[in-house]
Specification:
The structure holds three protein chains of three kinds. By secondary structure, chain B is an all-alpha fold. Chain B contains 16 helices and no strands.
């Protein structure tokens, strides 16, 4: 997996990047707020989750420096997210198939 | 912190300076209660889990006494409900789950990887305190009347209708869960970042691999239990009722959340025992572990697949038949990596130079009993069979075979195996062998009849039973008293050995791991100099430093030219 | 173990210490993902089962306050990231200013949340004996589940924010003493990781709790 000396050199993210990400996050928040007033049927929830995922990714990648972190860190992040999906997905597999004809 | 090359390692570690080791480095209660030395913390855990094991065992004794007669002479049904609940809670959360990781894992992982301590020593101590604080809440629940919901706390009984000390108990387990989480976190980070030079992943002992796999389960599973129990407490105390059927709440939601942790929890209990068994088998067959990479990967496989099978506890609860089929299939899948390990242990024993010291007796017992427990798990994975034996003593026998016949024997085997390293003393070998055999006999007499009882229809968690089941129940109780003796003996002779046992060398068996390259007991900083690892694990053939005779192996004679007689 | 400067005795060097601390915090955050994940499962199941009741209940929430709080937290993540920057640039005063700014924004979030909770109490939307939701009985019962989840999820989130405020205070004290403007700023970075995580939880809570079927 990792070599003995996997030193992530200290990466200093410039202020401009932080400011840009912050602005983007605020714009996306406004977007999600406005889109909620449109009638997209079942896609309302999809759009809301997708925007939330984009916002979360921006925070993780840039504010939390995951974009500059060793591969192991990204593996840890993906594992955590995947496991939560497992919990929700497999449980829903039960709920959503209860009403199906045998 | 200087490093020297140790290639091959010296024949024995340098003699300790005036016997200074982690046990006598400091004296006084504060040096123990405020220690950050992983070895001392391991011993603190040893004391705690032994006490909680005794409590759980006490409840077991009352259960078995009650079941001597069909009408039950000891307690009424309400009290009986509390007895089996507290037995389960104490044994699972306060003994089985912490035992090997917190005692042996804490002690050995830094030694096995060549580190001075775990990544977060203070967090390690905090884990121990959290563990005991949680236990305090649970003990409070016990002494103020106990809990009668079963250790599974199914809603809505636990969240609304039970009049027992559910809140205190779930708060206690919630708190103790953080001890698990922090220990798992400590182990994962340590194994990633603190390995000595040359200790690559493929040179790690299998015990470390299994602890790593176990720690993944600690980290990803325990938080779900935490939130689930918090939700139950919130429903009881704050009326935040999400499991309340009167409001449309689904009791099965609780079960999904509960078993998402509690099934992987059983792999928390068995994986470390498998790791211990692997170490012992290799050492006492004096042979390289067969299929090292397969065993390492199988450990991870068990941890991962173990997260995908939880609803096999819910086959008759009302889940969809399609979900049931999926979970049944996945449950069969999880047996595969376990089987891989069993085959590899067997192959390691084959043509090994086998000796029968106490740890080996436990390891061999583990393999046999684990196979029985595991196979009966496969019967339960078949939905049709499960419908017949669900909530009967068949299930009780199944899980006791793996938790007691498996995990506890692994724990005891490990304690015996590493006792010389931990204490610098040997336990009395003959008495220990006798205890192991007593334990094995007592165990089987206790639990084998329960397979039969369950198949014949005796339900679990019932204070009384039809008279035709009495004979088998009496056998079971008789076995339990023998089993109890088997547990008592090690407690006595281990304590005795700490004062009167013969002093142990640094590598008494001998074995190949890094932990045996330092003195028994080790110095506080584990190694005089940071080791540099250049040898492969379990490589008995290429370790002249162990002082072993060259193994006699029947080797085919080299092919001679035709016409020459063999033997010339 | 002894400690020389920032280096703890059981580590080889500051690099290993930093790597270890960072990995430790990330692993801890994954446990938090699973912890909140359990509640997200409960939410998903009940929203799927009782969609209309959830939508009706959600309309009782103040979307403006929710959106405002989202903005406040995003800004606080920005100031936290700036605090890390200041620490890396060895600017002690700026570091303290950004830590204080983060704390103030966090306090603002909690204050707004407090107003919202007070409103819920007034409108009898707190589950329990005083719960009263206008509407047909079934819908009211399912709405009570919605509000139970609302309080559990936002309450757990608020608890994490309060712990975060405490953590920031401790970091501020040490930052003022100059502990993080030398070679070693891992505590600020890892504290930042925690704070950003709490922000991310809210990023999901906002649309899920506040923005159900607003177009009706």
């Amino acid at each position: 997996m990792e070599t003995r000396s996997e030193h992530a050199p200290e990466h200093i993210v410039p202020i401009k990047t932080y400011a840009l990400i912050c602005a983007t996050l605020l714009v996306l928040t406004l977007t999600t707020y406005l889109v909620a007033f449109l009638d997209l049927g079942p896609f309302n929830i999809v759009v809301a989750i997708v925007i939330a995922c984009i916002k979360a990714s921006l925070v993780v990648l840039f504010f939390m420096h995951a974009a500059y972190a060793p591969r192991r860190t990204r593996l840890v992040i993906l594992a955590g997210m995947f496991w939560m999906m497992l919990l929700i997905g497999l449980s829903l597999a039960d709920y959503m198939t209860r009403a199906l004809p045998r | 912190m200087s490093t020297t090359t140790a290639n091959p390692p010296p024949a024995s570690s340098p003699p300790p300076k005036a016997h200074e080791n982690y046990l006598n480095a400091n004296y006084g209660i504060r040096s123990w209660l405020l220690t950050t030395d992983h070895k001392r913390i391991a011993l603190l855990y040893l004391v705690s889990v032994t006490i909680f094991f005794a409590m759980g065992g006490f409840f077991a004794m009352l259960i078995r006494l009650q079941l001597l007669t069909p009408e039950g002479f000891l307690v009424g049904p309400d009290t009986y409900n509390r007895l089996f609940t507290m037995h389960g809670v104490m044994m699972i959360f306060f003994f089985l789950i912490p035992s090997i990781p917190a005692v042996l894992g804490n002690f050995l992982i830094p030694l096995m990887i060549g580190a001075k301590d775990l990544a977060f020593p203070k967090l390690n101590l905090l884990s121990w305190y959290i563990f005991n604080i949680g236990a305090l809440f649970t003990v409070y629940a016990i002494v103020t009347g106990g809990v009668d919901t079963g250790w599974t706390f199914y809603t809505p009984y636990s969240s609304i209708y039970s009049n027992s000390q559910v809140s205190a108990a779930v708060i206690g387990i919630f708190i103790t869960g953080f001890s698990s989480i922090l220990t798992g976190l400590n182990f994962v980070v340590t194994i990633h970042t603190m390995r000595a030079p040359g200790m690559t992943w493929w040179r790690l002992p299998i015990f470390v691999w299994t602890q790593y796999a176990t720690s993944i389960i600690f980290i990803l599973g325990t938080p779900v239990l935490a939130i689930t129990l918090a939700l139950v407490a919130a429903e009881r105390l704050l009326h935040l009722g999400i499991f309340d059927p009167r409001l449309g709440g689904d009791p099965l939601l609780f079960q999904h959340l509960f078993w998402f942790y509690s099934h992987p929890a059983v792999y928390i209990m068995i994986l470390p025992a498998m790791g211990v068994t692997t170490e012992i088998i290799a050492t006492f067959a004096r042979k390289n572990l067969y299929g090292y990479k397969a065993v390492a990967m199988a450990s991870l496989g068990i941890a991962v697949i173990g997260f995908l099978v939880w609803a096999h506890h819910m086959f008759v609860a009302g889940i969809s038949i399609y979900a049931a089929m999926a979970f049944s299939l996945l449950s069969y899948l999880v047996a595969i990596p376990s089987a891989v390990k069993v085959f590899n242990w067997t192959a390691t024993l084959y043509r090994g130079s086998v000796s029968w010291q106490t740890p080996m007796l436990y390891a061999l017992g583990f393999i046999g009993l684990f196979v029985m427990g595991g196979m009966t798990g496969l019967f339960l994975a078949a939905i049709g069979a499960d419908v017949h034996v669900h909530d009967t003593y068949f299930v009780v026998a199944h899980f006791h075979y793996i938790m007691v016949g498996g995990a506890v024997m692994g724990y005891l085997g490990g304690l015996h195996y590493w006792w010389p390293k931990i204490t610098g003393r040997m336990y009395p070998e003959m008495l220990a062998r006798a205890a192991a055999i007593i334990l094995f006999v007592g165990f089987n007499l206790t639990f084998f009849p329960q397979f039969i009882l369950g198949y014949l229809g005796m339900p679990r968690r019932y204070a009384t039973y039809p008279p035709e089941f009495q004979v088998l129940n009496v056998f079971s109780t008789a076995g339990a008293s023998i089993l109890g003796l088997g547990y008592l003996l090690p407690i006595c002779y281990f304590v005795w050995s700490m004062r009167y046992g013969p002093k142990a060398s640094s590598n008494p068996w001998p074995a190949t791991g890094l932990e045996w390259q330092t003195s028994s007991p080790p110095p506080t900083e584990n190694f005089e100099v940071t080791p540099v690892v250049t040898w492969e694990p379990y490589d008995f053939e290429h370790r002249p430093d162990l002082g072993l005779p060259k193994p006699e192996r029947a080797r085919p004679k080299p092919l001679e030219a035709p016409g020459l007689e063999l033997g010339d | 173990m002894e400690r020389t400067g920032s280096l703890f005795g059981h580590f080889r060097d500051l690099d290993q210490q930093r790597e270890t601390a960072s990995l430790g915090m990330w692993v801890f955050l994954m446990t938090e993902v699973m912890f909140f994940g359990g509640m997200f499962l409960a939410y998903t199941v009940y929203r799927w089962k009782y969609h209309d009741a959830f939508a009706a209940a959600s309309r009782e929430l103040n979307v403006t306050m929710g959106a405002l709080n989202t903005g406040v937290l995003i800004l606080s993540s920005f100031t936290m990231a700036m605090a890390v920057w200041a620490s890396q640039m060895r600017k002690r005063n700026l570091l303290c200013i950004f830590l204080i700014a983060t704390m103030l924004l966090g306090a603002a979030f909690l204050t707004i949340k407090g107003f919202e909770y007070a409103q819920k109490f007034e409108h009898h939307l707190v589950p329990g004996p005083n719960f009263n939701f206008p509407g047909p009985e079934a819908e009211a019962q399912h709405a009570e589940i919605y509000f139970a989840l609302y309080f559990m999820m936002t309450g757990m989130h608020a608890l994490h924010m309060i712990i975060g405020e405490g953590m920031l205070l401790i970091l501020l004290i040490y930052a003022w003493k100059g502990s993080f403007t030398g070679d070693y700023h891992a505590p600020i970075e890892n504290g930042g990781l925690y704070w950003h995580f709490v922000d991310i939880v809210w990023i999901f809570l906002f649309p899920l709790l506040y923005l159900i079927d607003l177009h009706h």
